[in-house]
Amino acid sequence: MYYIGYDLGSSSVKVAIVNAKTGEKLVALHEPQNEMEIIAIHSDWAEQDPNLWWEYVCIATKRAIKEANIDASLISGIGISYQMHGLVVVDKQGEPLRHSIIWCDSRAVEIGNEAFNRLEHDVCTTKLLNSPGNFTASKLKWVLENEPELYSKIYKYMLPGDFIAYKLTGIINTTKNGLSEGILWDYKDDTLASFLLKHYGIDPSLTPDIVDNFTNQGTVNEKAATETGLPVGISVNYRAGDQPNNALSLNVFNHGEVAATGGTSGVVYAVTNTLKSKEASRINHFAHVNYTKENPTLGKLLCINGAGIQYRWLKDNLASNSYETMNNKANEVPIGSDGLCVIPFGNGAERMLNNKNIGAHYCNLNFNKHNDSHLYRAALEGIAFSFVYGMDILKGDNAAINVIRAGNDNLFRSEIFSNTVATLIGHEIEIYNTTGSVGAARAAGLTDGDFEKFGANITKNDHVMTFVPNKNKVPYMEAYQNWKKELEIILNNK
C-alpha cells in the first residue's frame, strides 16, 4: 500500500508517493517545471488562480503514479500541505469567486493593525496569541470592504489546502490548525474567533465545518478520480500549512524541539506547550499539527526575510562561483572574519526587528585586509547570527530550544553556518533529507496518533548528519557580540 502527499507552494505543486508501511519515498516531483504565475496588479498584491493549482495537482499526480511505476489502486491515503495564510472564497457551487489572495500579499496590513489597536493588544495576545496582522481574516475583511458585491455571493471561505481537499472530495471543511494560521482561532475559549469576525462584520456561517487534523476528512469522488488518476473512495487524512508540515516532516512535535529552514528567507519554528506571548507583533503563533485542547502544542514562528538571499546575491553578483567554491573559500578565514560584519537584512522589513527595514550592511570592511573569502564567511556568519538573534527572542517568549532539526537542501548544509548556530545556541542541529510533500504523504498514515513511531521512521529513513556545538565557544561569542553591536548602532539610527 502507498500514501500520496501534496505540498502546494506559490511556485509549484510538489507531489510524493511513499510506502505506507516503511515511509520510504518512491517518487517526489513538482509541477509546473517553471514557477507558477503570481498576479500582482498592484505592487503590494499577490494573487493566484485556485483552479490552476488544481490543474497542476492533476498533472503531477498522474506523472507521479507513472514514474513510481505503481498500481494506483494501492494508494490508500492522502496528505496535504499548503502555502499558509491565503484566502479562497467560493460560491454555493464551490467555484472560486476571485483569485486567491496569497500569503505574500500585503494589502490587509492596515486592516489588521487597526483591529489590533481597537480590540486592544491584551485581548488579541490572550485570545489570538497574535496581532490580526495581514492574515486570512484581515484579507476577508478587505474583500468585504472593497468588493461588497462579490462578498455577498460567498458561500464559504477557505485556506488554500482546504480548496485542494474540496476538489478531491467535494466536501468543504477546514481544521482548527488552518483557522489558527488565518488568525481565526480563539485559544482561550478553544473555538472560532467569533469576536474578531464580529469586529470585522463577517458572518461566522461563512466558516467551513471544522474537522480533526488526523482523520478521514472526506474521500475522493468520481470526478476527482477521473482528473487525477487516484482511486475513488480513498480518504484525505491530513492537512496542514507548510511550516507546521515542515516541522512534522522533521519529527518536531514536542516542547523544546525546533524546525529551521534557511532558504531565501529563514524560518525558525519552535514547538511550545505554553499558551502565552508578549511578542505577538514579532512572532506568529499557530496551532501545531498535534494541537488538542488537552495537549495545546503551539508553533512559535519567527521569519527572517534576509537569509539565503544574501548569500545568493553574493554568488550571482560578485562571486560567479558555486556555493561549494564559496564555502571552501570561507573556510580559509578564521571565526569572526577578521572583524568584517555582514548585516543581512536586505530583503524588506524584518518583523523581528519591529518591522524596521534597515537594509543590508557590510561593516568594518578593510581594503588592505579583507578579500572575497572574508565576504563569504562574514555573510554566512551574519545570517547565522540573525538566526541566533531570533532564537534569543523566542527563548525570551516562553520557547525552549533543546534540539534543532533542518532539511538538507538549504544553508544548513554549510558547516560554517550550522556550526556557528549550534555553538552559540548550545544544542545539536540534526540534518534530514526530506521534503514537505514526503512528510505530508507519511502523515496520511498518522490517524493512529503514534507520533513516536512516526518520528522513529523519519530518523531511520532521513537522518543525514548532526552538527555538535564546538567546545570552544569563546571566538563565536566574541564575533556574535561584535555583530550585535553593529546591528544596534544601525537600529538606533532608524
TrEMBL record:
Domain named Carbohydrate kinase FGGY N-terminal: residues: 2-245
TM region positions: none
Gene Ontology MF annotations: kinase activity
Keywords: Kinase, Transferase
Domain Carbohydrate kinase FGGY C-terminal: 259-445
Pfam families named among the record's database cross-references: FGGY_C (PF02782), FGGY_N (PF00370)
Listed SUPFAM superfamilies: Actin-like ATPase domain
Domain of life: Bacteria
Family recorded in the similarity comment: Belongs to the FGGY kinase family.
Protein name from the UniProt record: Carbohydrate kinase
Naturally occurring in which organism (per UniProt): Flavivirga algicola
Lineage, highest ranks first: Bacteria, Pseudomonadati, Bacteroidota, Flavobacteriia, Flavobacteriales
